[in-house]
Amino acid sequence: MKSILSTKTTRHPAVIDTLGGAPTGAPQAARTATTSPKTPKASKATKAPKPPRAPNEPRSPKDEPPRRPYLLRYAAALLLVVTALGWFLLRVFSGSDTADPVVAQSDDVAPTSMPALAVTPPAVTTEPVADPSACRTDQGDQKTGAGVVTAFEHAYYITRSADAVRALATPDTSLPLPEKIQAGIDSVPVGTTHCVRITPITAGVYSVVLAEMRPGIAPEQYPQTITTKDIDGRWFVDSIS
Predict the structure, then answer these.
(1) Distance in angstroms (rounded) separating the CA atoms of residues 88 and 16
(2) What is the pLDDT of residue 40?
(3) Which band of pLDDT confidence, cut at 50, 70 and 90, is reported for residue 70?
């Protein structure tokens, strides 16, 4: 067995520095590193501190802090979004509850646009239709049977002409001659008024109620049945019963 003291070992340089001296069999480089003093490495040259800037000395671009344009862009975009959102909420909550202000226009200010003119077509003038149940006193006509009955009574009481009465009768009428008709007209006091109510019975035949109002006398009524005829589009009185 080999003696422990004779065993060669290699120690770490830190151990060598602690124990002092190099052990037997240590590498030459280790001993040399232990015995020779280390030459300190030259340290890097340090920059001299800048002198303080005078109060009135303008700041150079190198002294200003670096700009951050991306922060400005983000801030502008955020401000735009907040503004748009505020405008939208204002329109939603206040637009439906408040009406648009009405601007009063002065009479001297001309309107910007001319209002549309309401054009109403002229009413078609039609001949008034007499109420068949009314008591008529008008001049009548020869367009209908009821119209010629009215014209016949008007010629007797208002025109007071036997010729006018006879002209409204058919040529072969059963009515008396004009001289007899005129004698009957002259027997009626001047100023007498009348009213005739006409009710149709059949075609061309009417039930007539004649009301005669003489001055100073109570009105009297005379029921009649009058037959009319249409000759060439004109109506005539044919008979009275």
Answers:
(1) 83
(2) 46
(3) low
Confidence class for position 91, pLDDT limits 50, 70, 90: confident
Q: Position 148: which residue type?
A: V
- For 214, the token pair is 């003489």
CB atoms within 10 A of CB 160: 15
Is CATH 3.40.50.2300 the right assignment for the domain spanning 135-240?
no
- Residue 21: C-alpha distances to residues 30, 121, 189 (Å): 10, 137, 182
How many Å apart are CA 151 and CA 221, to the nearest integer? 18
- List Cα–Cα distances, 94 to 82, 86, 91, 98, in angstroms: 18, 12, 5, 6
Residue 197: Cβ within 10 Å count: 17
Where along the chain do its domains lie?
135-240
The model's pTM is 0.47
Number of CB atoms found within 10 A of residue 150's CB: 21
Edge to edge, the sheet with strand 205-213 lists 135-136, 193-202, 205-213, 220-231, 234-240
